[in-house]
Amino acid sequence: MLQITGLTHSYGGDHGVLGGIDLTVPDGQLVSIVGPSGCGKSTLLRCIAGLIRPTGGTLTLDGAPIDGVPDDLAVVFQDYSRSLFPWLSVRDNVALPLRRRGKSRQERRAAAQEALESVGLPDAGRKYPWQLSGGMQQRVSIARALAYRPSLMLMDEPFGSVDAQTREDLEDLLLQVHRTQKITILLVTHDIDESVYVGDRVVVLHRSPARVHADLEVELPASRDQIETRGLPEFVRLRAEVGRLVRGGARSAGSEPADTDSGSDIVTEK
Fold first, then answer.
1. Kindly report the CA angle at 25 between 149 and 41, in degrees rounded to 5?
2. Alpha carbon distance 198, 206 (integer Å)
3. Which of 63, 132, 138, 239 has the fewest C-beta atoms lying within 10 Å of its C-beta?
4. What is the pLDDT of residue 161?
5. What is the pLDDT of residue 270?
6. Distance CA 262, CA 217 (A)
7. What is the pTM of this model?
8. CB burial class (10 A; 0-12, 13-18, 19+) of residue 20?
9. Within 10 A of 8 (CB to CB), how many other CB atoms are there?
């Protein structure tokens, strides 16, 4: 679905942020992206979203070059309080992007209500964002993305502004949405445990200028539980591996280099 080849970006002068990223994301996969703070994770998402024109390289979505914001894409941001319009009701916030789809008012409202039900907020439509808790507001943001029915959803540290319990609830909501709606998702997170818990793969980026340092398969049961899954030996092992790589460590024993040409240090683990 998503193909990234040789992606580079610089904000001027010698300030290179992306140093040549190659990444392929199949249809329906949930990919967690982690890396040191400031390594270019958010810049990568903005390039994919068409919000930034990269300095070099190519990006294609469903075989079509990304040149501007793709029609079949939705973004969930970290700061839910700034991504929702406080003067619009929850239902109208969720329905707003559907105008781009050419939906009638009745169709927009029906789709918004369906999306709110899918995130556990069936009775929140008439309220305003400021009447909801932070976790509920982020659910509204996710509902807005789902109502648009995108082929690709980008999430930029979406649970970073909520408390630990709410974060776990939202992680489980994300897994449920991914399982039922079959949407391809790229999730940027600073939380290593979260990256392993929700992901089908974990992609680790180097420090800026970012390159792919490792690409790890997550071989955990499809049905996950906050207590049982996090206690599995495979979860503990993979969490430690991702943590080591984020801190600049080398691959552990048993990992195989994906590409030994030209000094590449990309790591894959099956």
1. 90
2. 21
3. 63
4. 76
5. 45
6. 24
7. 0.86
8. middle
9. 18
Instruction: Name the percent of the chain lying above pLDDT 70.
Output: 91
Compute the Cα dihedral for 132, 197, 251, 25 and give only its sign: negative
Least confident of 64-73, 92-101, 253-262: 253-262
Structure tokens at 13: 């002068």
- Helices (DSSP H) in the chain: which residue ranges? 41-48, 80-83, 90-95, 105-118, 134-147, 164-181, 192-198, 233-246
For residue 200, which amino acid is it?
A: D
Query: Contact at 8 Å (CB) between 261 and 207?
Result: no
Q: What local confidence, expressed as pLDDT, does residue 40 receive?
A: 86
Helices (H), 14-129: 41-48, 80-83, 90-95, 105-118
**Domain extents in the chain:** 26-52+63-72+152-269, 85-149
Q: What's the token pair of residue 73?
A: 């894409």
Amino acid at 37: S
What is d(CA 85, CA 252) in angstroms, rounded to the nearest whole number? 47
Burial of 52 (0-12, 13-18, 19+ CB in 10 A): middle
Closest to 174 in 3D by CA, of 123, 133, 119: 119
- Those residues whose C-beta lies under 8 Å from the C-beta of residue 121, and which sit 6 or more positions away, are 90, 136, 139, 140, 143
Q: Which CATH class is domain 26-52+63-72+152-269?
A: alpha beta
- 227-253 average pLDDT score: 87
Rounded to 10°, the helix 134-147/164-181 angle is: 20
